[in-house]
Design brief:
Layout (H helix, E strand, L loop, with lengths): L4 H14 L2 E5 L17 E2 L11 E2 L4 E3 L10 E5 L8 E6 L12 E3 L3 E2 L5
Antiparallel strand pairs: 1-2, 1-5, 3-8, 4-7, 5-6
């Protein structure tokens, strides 16, 4: 039995409503998401409109600042609110350039959720 598009869009919307903030880490975030926190601040996340299959992603790059110049970046975690007041919900290990630039900035360009099954 396949779920209809309206169910998948509604489910994606619920996930989006929960995942409101992101934070960077210099190594694995641990089970509570509080290990190896990067010096950069947490950012609010905006998501794209879900497709009929429930797929969605970032609605723009996350431009972190305040990190350690040329320091490591390992992962981004997602939270139900600002870290410290929200709840940790997951960690995505980053690929590609894994370091803050000389100004302590790092940009996350994509976090994608795929509601499809094959």
């Amino acid at each position: 039995m396949a779920l209809n598009d309206s169910v998948m869009v509604a489910a994606a919307g619920e996930i989006q409503a929960l995942l409101t903030h992101a934070r960077l880490h210099t190594a694995a975030a641990g089970v509570a998401g509080t290990d190896n926190v990067a010096a950069s601040s947490a950012l609010a996340v905006a998501w794209t409109t879900p497709t009929g299959a429930g797929d969605f992603g970032l609605d723009g790059a996350l431009n972190f600042s305040g990190g350690t110049a040329s320091g490591p970046v390992h992962s981004v975690t997602l939270w139900t609110g600002t870290p410290g007041s929200g709840t940790f919900r997951g960690e995505f290990v980053l690929t590609g350039d894994a370091a803050f630039n000389a100004a302590g900035e790092y940009t996350v360009t994509a976090i994608n959720f795929d509601g499809s099954a094959t």
